[in-house]
Design brief:
The complex is a heterotrimer of chains A (573), B (374) and C (118). Chain A has 573 residues and is mainly alpha-helical. In chain A, helix 3 (81-119) runs parallel beside helix 6 (172-199). Chain A has helices spanning 31-35, 40-68, 81-119, 128-150, 164-167, 172-199, 212-244, 257-291, 298-311, 327-355, 364-387, 389-395, 399-429, 435-461, 476-506, 561-572; strands spanning 548-551, 556-559. Chain A has a two-stranded antiparallel sheet with strand order 1-2. Residues 1-19 of chain A have low confidence and may be disordered. Chain B is an all-alpha fold and 374 residues long. Chain B contains eleven helices and two strands. Chain B has a two-stranded antiparallel ribbon with strand order 1-2. Chain C has 118 residues and is mainly α. In chain C, helix 1 (20-40) runs antiparallel to helix 2. The chains are: A mainly alpha (573), B mainly alpha (374), C mainly alpha (118). At the B-C interface, helix 1, helix 3, strand 1, helix 6 and helix 9 of B face helix 1, helix 2 and helix 3 of C.
C-alpha cells in the first residue's frame, strides 16, 4: 500500500497532545455556530442528542405498555375502553417512534456522520449542506410526531395498514407526513455517504482497503436510496386516501388493501437491513480491534453486506403470508427469505474465526460485540423459522414474531449501537467513561433483554397474540416475567446514560487511540480538530495493528511510523 | 489485500498527493494560502474537494443518486398503474377516453423541446457563452410554462366533467351500491361514452365474441368467488322496473337504465349488439374497439374513479416536478445574469439539467401509458 | 469521463461538450418517435400495441439519457445507478403484479356494487 507524503506538512501538532489547541467542539461558540454548522462531526453530535431523545421517548412508551401488560383483566378488575385505547396508542407510538426516529437513523446518522469522513481521512462528507438539511428534516419529522402525540395519538401500529388507517380518527395524516419527512432525512444521509465513499477516498485506499464499517454503511446507503422513495410514495398515497378517499387501497371504494402491504413492505423490509447492516459493520471493527487480530475473511464480510442489501429487496412478501397473498408469491418469498441466512451466517462465522486464537480483551465495546453475536444468532435463526410457510401460519402475529424482531432490531442493533458509542466515545469527546460501571450496565442490559424477550418466544409459541391489551390467565406468568425483565433492561440503559453524562463532565482525558485500532479516525487527536487531521494520515491496512505501541503513561496506543513502514513493505509481499 | 477498484471511478488513479491539511472552509481559521500545491484554488471549489473535477463529478454522482430516488418514487405510481391496468384493463380502456391524445402529444413535443434547450444551455455554460446560456435557460423555462399551461387546460376539462380525484370531485363514486352523484355520473358517462364512441369507429361491440370475454363475465366455474356480473345483473334486473328498454337477458344495472341517455346513437349500437349476445356483457378487446359504460361489469364500474385518481396522481406529481424544475431554472437564470457560470464552473447548470431531463424522461413513459391506451 | 469521445470542444477535462448538431439530431429523432408512437395507435395490433408503445418510450428514454444527460460520455457508474433504479423498479412492479394477478379472483366484489335489494 502506498505511503502518502504530504509535501508541506504544517506540523502544528502531532496528534497526541494538543496544549491549548482547539477541537471541533470548542472551535467556535454560540448556538448558531451549531445550528448552521456544516461540520459532519457537529451534525453527528446534534443527531446524537435528538436521536437519543427519541430513544428515551420510545423506551418510555415501551415501559408503559409492559407495565400495562403486567396485569390482565378479571371479572372484578376489567380493563376499561380508555385503557385499551391507551394501550393501542402506546404500542403504536413505541413502534413508530423507535423505528423511524431511532433504529433507522441511529448508527448511520450518529456514528456514520461522526466517523465516516474520519475513516476516509477526508475533511467532510461530499455534500455538507445536504447533511445539515438531513438533520433539519429529522427535526421537522420529529415535530410531526410530537404533534401526533399531543393531538389524539396514533393507534394503527407503526405499519399504517389500510383500511383501518384511513378510517381511524387518530392523527394518521400527521404521522404520515412525519414519516415522509424523516424518509427524506434518511435518503439525504444515504446519498451523501455513497457519494463520499466514491469520491473522497484518499489515494491508496481502494475499495478493498475500506474499513468494513464503511462497506456496511455503503450497503445501508444503497437501501436508503433505493427503498425509501417507495415509502415516500406509499405515504403520499395513504395521505391521498385519507384526505380524498381515492380508494386505491380501500376495498369499500374498489381498492386493494393487500396492495398497500406490498407498497409498505417493499420499503419496510429492506429498512430492517438499514437497521442491522451498519450494526454489523460496527461489530466487524470491534471484533478485530479487541481480538487484536486481522479481520478474518475481509472480502466475504464486505460482499455479504452487499448481498444482504440486495436480497433484502426480494423478501418483503414474508410479512404477508397470511394477508391474502397468493400461494405462488408465498413460496417464492419463503425460498428467498431462507437464502438471506447465508450472508448473515458468513458474517457470524468470520467474526468467530477472527476471535479464534486472538488476544481477546473484554473491554466494554467487546462485551457488546459478543452480546451482539449471541442475540443476533437467536434473532436470525428464529427468522428462518418464521420464513417457513407452515410454521408462519401458526406463529404469525404472535409474541414469537415480537420476540424475533426485538432480538434483531433491539437486541442486535441496540447492543451494536451501544458498543459503537462506547468504542468511539473517547474519539468523539476526548473523555473516557467509567469502565466498571459500563460493564455493570452491559450486564443489566444483556440480562434484562433476554429476560424480557426470550420468554416471549415461548408465549408466542403457546399462542399469545401480539398487540392485545389483555390476555388469558394462562399467559400471566410470561407477561409478568417479561415486564420485570424490561425494568432490568431499562435500569441498564439509564445507567449507560448516567455513565456517559459523568464521562462528559468528569471523565478522564482520553488518549488519541485507547484501543490500538488502525482505522484512520485513530490517527487524529481526540477529539479531532475542526479540520479533522492536522497531518495527512498514512493509508494502510485498517486491520493491521502492529504499528501501535501501548504506552502505559497515557493508557493508550502510540503510533510508531517506523513499524508502519515495515508493515507496509511486508504487506506488498 | 489487492488494491483493485470495482468501479472505474478515476479518483483512485489520481496520482496527485492528497493534501488533507487543506482547510479553506468558511469557518476554518486559516485561509487558502496555508497549503502548498493549490495556491490558486478556484473560488467555487469547496474546502473538502481537491480539484474542480472531483467536485463536479461528486455533484453529478449526487444528482444521479437523487434521480434514482425520483425514479423509484414515481415507480410506486407506475406500480399502482400496472396493477390496476393489468387486472382491470377495461376500466383503463374506458377511462382514457376522457383524455386528449393530441394535447398529450403536443405536451410531449413541448417538453422534448425544452430538454433540447436545456442540453444546449449546458453546452453554452461549458463554453462560457453567457448570452446564449441565458437565452437557452429562458427558452427552457418557457417550455415549462407551456407544458403547465396545456396541463391546466386539460385539468380544467376534467374538472368541468367531474373527473377530478377524490370523493368530493369525482362522479364515479358509489355508495351502498348506488351512484353517489347520479346526475354528475350521467353527465360524465355521456361525456366519456361520446368520446369513446366517436373515436372508436363503427367496429364497436360488433366484433366481440360474447362468452369469451371472461374478465367481465366470469365463466360459471369462477363464479363462486367473484359473482358473475351477469348473475348480479340478473338479480339487479329482477329489481328493476319493467320499463327497462332492453331484454331481460342483457340488463344494465338498475341505476344506469336511468343514467345512460338513450338518445345517444352509440348507445343504440351497443344495445343492439348486446341483445344479440344475450346474457353476456360485451367486453371487446380488439385494438380499436372502444369500451362504453355498458361494457363494464359492475365491479369495474366501481373502479373507474381509480383510473382518474391514478391519472391525476401521476401527472400531478410530474407537474409538481415541472414546477420545481422551473423554480430551479429561474434561479439559474438569475445566477447566469450575475455571470456566475463559466468554463470553470457550471455544475449547477449541469445537475439541474439532469433533473430537467429526468422529468422529461418520466413524461416520455407517462404519455403512452396514459394517453395511448389500447 | 470524455475519453470515449474527443473533439475540439474539450474543456479542462470537466464534463463533455455535446456538439449542437448532435443535440438537434437527437431532438429530431425524439420527435420522429413521438409521431411514430401516436401513429401506431391508429393501427390495431392487439396486445402488441402496448409493447410497441413502451418499446418506443424506452428508445426515447435511452436517447435522452445517453445524449441529453451525457451518459454516453459519463462515468459508467452514473449509468449503472440509472439501470439499477429501473431494475429495482422492475422487481417491485413485477412481483406485485404477479401476486395481485394471482389473488384477484379471491376478492369479493366491493359492497358498493352489490345488487341493491329491497
Amino acid at each position: 500500500m502506498s505511503v502518502i507524503q504530504d509535501p508541506v506538512n504544517s506540523g502544528v501538532y502531532s496528534g497526541q497532545d494538543q496544549p491549548g489547541g482547539t477541537n471541533y467542539i470548542n472551535h467556535s461558540k454560540g448556538v448558531m455556530s451549531w445550528l448552521l454548522t456544516l461540520d459532519h462531526k457537529r451534525i453527528g453530535l446534534m443527531y446524537m442528542v435528538s436521536v437519543l431523545s427519541a430513544f428515551a421517548l420510545g423506551g418510555t412508551f415501551a415501559i408503559i405498555l409492559r407495565t400495562m401488560l403486567f396485569t390482565h383483566s378479571s371479572p372484578e378488575n376489567p380493563i376499561s375502553d380508555s385503557g385499551q385505547e391507551l394501550y393501542n396508542q402506546m404500542f403504536t407510538l413505541h413502534g413508530a417512534v423507535l423505528v423511524f426516529m431511532f433504529i433507522i437513523p441511529a448508527v448511520p446518522a450518529i456514528l456514520g456522520n461522526m466517523i465516516l469522513p474520519l475513516m476516509l481521512g477526508a475533511k467532510d462528507v461530499a455534500f455538507p449542506r445536504l447533511n445539515l438539511l438531513s438533520w433539519y428534516c429529522y427535526i421537522v419529522g420529529g415535530l410531526f410526531f410530537l404533534f401526533v402525540l399531543l393531538s389524539g395519538g396514533l393507534d394503527t401500529g407503526w405499519t399504517f395498514y389500510t383500511p383501518y388507517s384511513t378510517s381511524t380518527s387518530t392523527s394518521v395524516a400527521a404521522a404520515t407526513l412525519g414519516a415522509f419527512v424523516l424518509g427524506f432525512s434518511s435518503i439525504l444521509t444515504g446519498l451523501n455517504f455513497i457519494a463520499t465513499i466514491h469520491m473522497l477516498r484518499p489515494p491508496g485506499m481502494g475499495w478493498f482497503q475500506l474499513p468494513l464499517f464503511l462497506w456496511a454503511l455503503y450497503a445501508t446507503s444503497l437501501i436508503q436510496v433505493l427503498a425509501t422513495p417507495v415509502l415516500a410514495i406509499t405515504l403520499l398515497l395513504l395521505l391521498a386516501e385519507k384526505v380524498l378517499h381515492i380508494g386505491i387501497f380501500d376495498p369499500a371504494l374498489g381498492g386493494d388493501p393487500v396492495l398497500f402491504q406490498h407498497f409498505f413492505w417493499f420499503y419496510s423490509h429492506p429498512a430492517v437491513y438499514i437497521m442491522i447492516l451498519p450494526a454489523m459493520g460496527i461489530i466487524s471493527e470491534l471484533i478485530s480491534t479487541f481480538s487484536r487480530r486481522h479481520i478474518f475473511g475481509y472480502s466475504f464480510i464486505a460482499f455479504s453486506s452487499i448481498a444482504i442489501a440486495l436480497l433484502g429487496f426480494l423478501v418483503w412478501g414474508h410479512h404477508m403470508y397470511t394477508s391474502g397473498q397468493s400461494g405462488m408469491a408465498n413460496a417464492v418469498f419463503s425460498l428467498i427469505t431462507f437464502s438471506v441466512a447465508i450472508p448473515s451466517a458468513i458474517k457470524i462465522f468470520n467474526w468467530l474465526a477472527t476471535m479464534y486464537k486472538g488476544s481477546i480483551s473484554l473491554a466494554t465495546p467487546m462485551l457488546y460485540a459478543l452480546a451482539f453475536i449471541w442475540l443476533f444468532t437467536i434473532g436470525g435463526l428464529t427468522g428462518v423459522f418464521l420464513g417457513s410457510l407452515a410454521l408462519n401460519i401458526h406463529a404469525h402475529d404472535t409474541y414469537f414474531v415480537v420476540a424475533h424482531f426485538h432480538y434483531v432490531m433491539v437486541g442486535s442493533m441496540m447492543t451494536a449501537f451501544l458498543g459503537g458509542m462506547y468504542y468511539w466515545w473517547p474519539k468523539m469527546f476526548g473523555k473516557m467513561y467509567n469502565e466498571p460501571v459500563a460493564k455493570v450496565a452491559w450486564f443489566l442490559i444483556f440480562a434484562g433483554f433476554n429476560l424480557t424477550f426470550f420468554i416471549q418466544f415461548i408465549a408466542g409459541s403457546q399462542g399469545m397474540p401480539r398487540r392485545y391489551a389483555d390476555y388469558l390467565p394462562e399467559y400471566a406468568f410470561f407477561h409478568k416475567f417479561s415486564t420485570v425483565g424490561s425494568y432490568v433492561l431499562a435500569a441498564g440503559l439509564v445507567l449507560v446514560l448516567l455513565n456517559w453524562i459523568h464521562a462528559l463532565l468528569k471523565g478522564k482525558k482520553a488518549p488519541q487511540n485507547p484501543w490500538g485500532s488502525n482505522t484512520l479516525e485513530w490517527h487524529t487527536s481526540s477529539p479531532p480538530p475542526h479540520e479533522n487531521f492536522a497531518e495527512t494520515p498514512t493509508v494502510s491496512d485498517p486491520y493491521v495493528m502492529g504499528a501501535w505501541d501501548y504506552d502505559e503513561s497515557i493508557d493508550g496506543y502510540v503510533h510508531n511510523p517506523q513499524k508502519a513502514q515495515e508493515l507496509a513493505q511486508q504487506g506488498h509481499h | 489485500m489487492p488494491s483493485r477498484d470495482i468501479t472505474e471511478d478515476r479518483h483512485d488513479a489520481d496520482p496527485r498527493p492528497r493534501d488533507i491539511t487543506d482547510m479553506s472552509s468558511d469557518s476554518a481559521p486559516q485561509p487558502d494560502k496555508a497549503h502548498g500545491g493549490h495556491d490558486n484554488r478556484p473560488p467555487h471549489l469547496a474546502h473538502h474537494f481537491e480539484t474542480p473535477k472531483q467536485q463536479f463529478e461528486s455533484g453529478k454522482l449526487g444528482m444521479w443518486l437523487f434521480l434514482a430516488t425520483e425514479i423509484l418514487m414515481f415507480g410506486g405510481l407506475f406500480c399502482a398503474y400496472a396493477i390496476y391496468r393489468g387486472n382491470h384493463q377495461d376500466v383503463f380502456l374506458y377511462g382514457y377516453g376522457a383524455l386528449d391524445k393530441m394535447w398529450g402529444a403536443t405536451n410531449t413535443v413541448v417538453l422534448l423541446a425544452s430538454s433540447l434547450t436545456m442540453a444546449w444551455a449546458v453546452r453554452a455554460a461549458q463554453k462560457g457563452q453567457q448570452k446564449l446560456l441565458i437565452a437557452m435557460l429562458v427558452a427552457t423555462f418557457m417550455g415549462g410554462v407551456g407544458f403547465m399551461g396545456i396541463k391546466a387546460v386539460e385539468y380544467k376539462a376534467k374538472y368541468d366533467h367531474n373527473l377530478f380525484p377524490g370523493q368530493q370531485f369525482n362522479a364515479f363514486y358509489y355508495e351502498s351500491g348506488k351512484p353517489k352523484y347520479p346526475e354528475k355520473l350521467a353527465h360524465a358517462i355521456e361525456y366519456i361514452d361520446g368520446r369513446n364512441a366517436g373515436r372508436g369507429g363503427a367496429s364497436h361491440g360488433t366484433d366481440g365474441q360474447g362468452g369469451e370475454h371472461s374478465d367481465a363475465a366470469p365463466a360459471p366455474g369462477e363464479g363462486q368467488v367473484l359473482q358473475g356480473a351477469g348473475h348480479q345483473q340478473a338479480e339487479a334486473d329482477a329489481q328493476a322496473p319493467a320499463a327497462v328498454i332492453v331484454t331481460a337477458s342483457f340488463a344494465p344495472p338498475a341505476d344506469v337504465t336511468n343514467l345512460a341517455p338513450p338518445a345517444s346513437p352509440a348507445d343504440a349500437g351497443v344495445l343492439d349488439s348486446a341483445i344479440d349476445h344475450a346474457g353476456v356483457v360485451q367486453t371487446p378487446h380488439a385494438g380499436h374497439t372502444q369500451i362504453l359504460w355498458e361494457d363494464l361489469s359492475q365491479t369495474e364500474r366501481g373502479k373507474v374513479h381509480i383510473f382518474f385518481e391514478i391519472y391525476f396522481l401521476m401527472t400531478g406529481l410530474h407537474g409538481l416536478h415541472v414546477l420545481i424544475g422551473m423554480g430551479l431554472i429561474g434561479w439559474l437564470i438569475l445566477k447566469a445574469r450575475a455571470r456566475t457560470f463559466g468554463k470553470e464552473y457550471f455544475t449547477p447548470v449541469d445537475v439541474i439539467g439532469l433533473y430537467w431531463h429526468l422529468v422529461d424522461l418520466i413524461w416520455i413513459f407517462l404519455f403512452p401509458l396514459l394517453y395511448l391506451i389500447h | 469521463m470524455s475519453d470515449a469521445h474527443t473533439n475540439d470542444d474539450h474543456n479542462h477535462g470537466i464534463g463533455h461538450i455535446t456538439p449542437v448538431s448532435l443535440l438537434v439530431g437527437i431532438f429530431a429523432l425524439l420527435i420522429f418517435f413521438t409521431v411514430l408512437t401516436v401513429a401506431v395507435t391508429y393501427v390495431d395490433l392487439g396486445p402488441a400495441n402496448i409493447w410497441i408503445a413502451l418499446g418506443v418510450a424506452v428508445v426515447k428514454g435511452a436517447l435522452v439519457g445517453l445524449y441529453f444527460m451525457h451518459l454516453r460520455y459519463d462515468s459508467p457508474f452514473n449509468g449503472l445507478i440509472l439501470v439499477t433504479a429501473f431494475l429495482f423498479l422492475a422487481v417491485f412492479i413485477g412481483i406485485s403484479l404477479m401476486d395481485t394477478g394471482e389473488y384477484q379472483r379471491n376478492i369479493p366484489p366491493p359492497p358498493t356494487v352489490r345488487p341493491v335489494t329491497g
